[in-house]
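Reviewers of the previous submission asked for a worked example of the structure-prediction workflow described in the proposal, so we include one complete record here. The input consisted solely of the amino acid sequence. No template or homolog information was supplied to the procedure at any stage.
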Amino acid sequence: MKFAVLDFETTGNQSADEIIQVGLAIIEEDRGISRVYGTYVNPGIPIPPFITGLTGISDSDVADAPSLEEMMMELVPMLDDVVLVGHNVAFDFNFLQNALDRCGYLPFSGRILDTMHFLKICFPSLPSYQLGMVSSHFGLEHDRPHQADSDALATANVLLKCLEEIDELPLLTIQRLSDLFAEEDSDLAWFFDGIRVEREMQAVQDGSIHTYYRQFALGVEDWTDIAPVRDEAEPNPLANMSFDEYMDEVRRRLKEVLPQYESRDAQDIMFQEVMQALDEDKHLLIEAGTGTGKSLGYLLPSIYQSVKQEQKVMVSTHTINLQEQLRDRDIPLLTQVVPFPFKAAIFKGRGHYLCLRKFEHKINRRDFHSPKEDVITAAQMLVWLTQTESGDDEELNLGGRGGDFWETIASDSDSCLGRGCPWFRKCYYHRAKHEAGIADVVITNHSKLFTDVKANHQMLPSYERLVIDEAHHLEDVAGKHLGLQMKYFTVVHTLTRLYKDSRSGQLPALRQLLQASPHEKSGEWSAVIDRIYPDLITVKETWDRLSDQLFGLLPERGDASPGDAGQYTLRLSPAKKPKDWGALAELEQQIHVTLGDVVRKGDKLIAEMKEELDDYSADSLLTDLSGLFKDLAAHREDLRSFMALNDEGTVYWMEANGNFRSKSLQLYAVPVDVSKHLKELFFDKKRSVILTSATLSVDKSFQFMIDNLGLQEAADAGNLNTVQLPSPFNYREQALLVIPRDFPSVKGSVGDAVFVDTLVKSLSEAAIATQGRMLVLFTSYRMLRQVHEPLKEALAASDITVLGQGMDGTSRTKLIRRFQDSSASVLLGTSSFWEGVDIPGEALTCLAIVRLPFQPPNHPLVEAKSELLQQQKKNPFMKLSVPQAVIRFKQGFGRLVRTAHDKGIVIVYDTRVIESYYGKYFLYSLPGPKMEHMPTEGIVPRIAQWLEERENEKE
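From that input alone, the workflow returned the following structure tokens.
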């Protein structure tokens, strides 16, 4: 095969737009790049400024360039007898056909391949498939992105990388891929068929690195072969070693592995405190600010404790991010420095693991909902199976519809055959469970902790000691899991997976199987299935009606929540139900009865077939169906308990989005106070629970957390230690906090013209002084939108980019990456940016906090908690709103200084911190930065002066 890799730069992306540059790289049959052709093209019209900004191509560049006809005379002969390749090739191909037509040539009729497809298939775990990102990932030269010849050459090199990867794939995987695409009349099908034929002619290579099973090539052996890391017959490695001796040895090895390692007071205190709590069976609240090294602070004592006592320690994080960081960064380091072998295992929620049985079933039956995309996703996964050891979806880059595809093949307990499954010994979920079973320390997340509690401790291995990191989230997660959350689509997904139309869905699949089955009862069983169909349709129609009417109750107002535009929220109170609630309850009653009927028929049918039909291919289908019927039964119960509105201790509310209306409906029922649940489930049951986070105290006191998490009784009994670690940073030198004392104030979530103008002017001047590198935190998305455009205009002349959360559909992770990559930029973010964003070093110099982060007082959960506090004769503002806001404020502040060498400025544009009686709680809770207030116009000169002093100190 000879490839021609084509790239056009154009004046826009409509077919009427003009080509301004062309790049073409020719790859010969020996895979050498024989030539790269590039030229500007005179479009005959001015180039839009936006395109010049993107590509760097200006009118002067193309003034003397050849016309389209002249360029095509050179290009067309090079396209003879080649396979045409492009990155997102449809774009370039469209322009090519157009140009051929305009210049009087025949259309291109050869094969066309897209490097986007190849990248997805060959490198299923790449974080991004954007050409620039991919080039830098592979270390390829790509010096002028968005210039056609440079793009064409980069794309050609990427294609070669993919071809090398395809050469390495086992023959079985190639056959599978060829088979997967065979049903499509596509050029990818032609390509993989050719590769398959070629590979089948070669001598068989030794495939010792893969395991072959049921026509799949896997990257792992059976998990039943994984043995514990220490031999049980050997003496305990810590039998005669005290904690101090162990730590001395660890520190010695840390110095060898990380020459720059120096022991930090705060971390040393943490080692001792955590060890003492584990050893004395006490609970511990320990606040460890940024830079303490808190992961090691709790992992090292946990390993010591679990190995010495031969009892597991469970570690729980709030985010999957932190779980991954522990797995990829901290555990490998500890493996090098702990003086004996130990095992730490990551154990996530079940839905993160691939179910091989479902995947095999899906692929063999080509059960695809959106065939074009699903075939690519399936191909991605076939290749991923040859690489993955964990089968964890976080390793996959599933774009577009990939998430829906995953849902149908994720492991779940309702459809698990357990030991009866042919895949059992290869199963990723059971591998993770087995590894957790033989591990000393198991790392899970808050969600899974609660799923485990709800499932009577069937999910996690048993444990007596627990470390909770990111503990300031525990209360929220507890509420979500101990309560109920139901979306419109939760119900619809289950219904459509059972039956979408007569061709797709698990019930039609079972019916097709019965048609081919000689079993005497197959006619009778088919009749049952035919009777279930209309019931499912009825339920779907009634659910649509009910959702529409529930959505109709939501008040039409846009400022109800700081989320997106037109986010509606309505609290429902058991005492006074909305006036037409009776009619809604009748719809729920219809759903309840019909679903009850469906589930009974379905369960009975499956039980009979399992007993009498001896057909493996039906087994896995019946298991999945039985799982779906269980889901339906659960939705039926959830809906009943939500609509009943009968528990005074629960807060009920609905949320929806103005754009997607009833399709975005979510129903919530959450316990108002989870403290007694937490006390009963964890603090009374476990010997030692250690809670840590950078933000647990308010104004140097832990009382807020003690009240909310149900620790008061433990504290009274002397079973709770609390520690606030000293900060390892010199905040007085490293951080300056300024407050403009004459700044206009604002009511509600929208700023008036004076406020917005003053804010934009001040932000733009500050951004110029700090050369961008600025993060601006808002509490309302509407205000962010008010500021975004004017700030963009104000900074356009200074070449400072303004990035806004939710402004161009980019995900949070991508925004942060773009912010880090572009040296001069300002990032505007709302709620999710207040924490968990790690931007160390030069990328962030200035943090602007527009308003103190109070939660909207009209959020149903906040309202209900406030009412409860009032009944207890407490002040909800001081007991709830202020402490919550202080903790978020501290989280926001924590974005700024991430290492001992970072320096930065915080501007707080909310004068309440110096004017109100509660402002001091915000300022006193910070770790001691230099604080100054001044008139607004004094801010920029002060910032410039402070930055200059820091520069001089460095010299």
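Residues 558-565 have pLDDT under 50 and may be disordered. We consider this example representative of the routine output the project will generate in years two and three.
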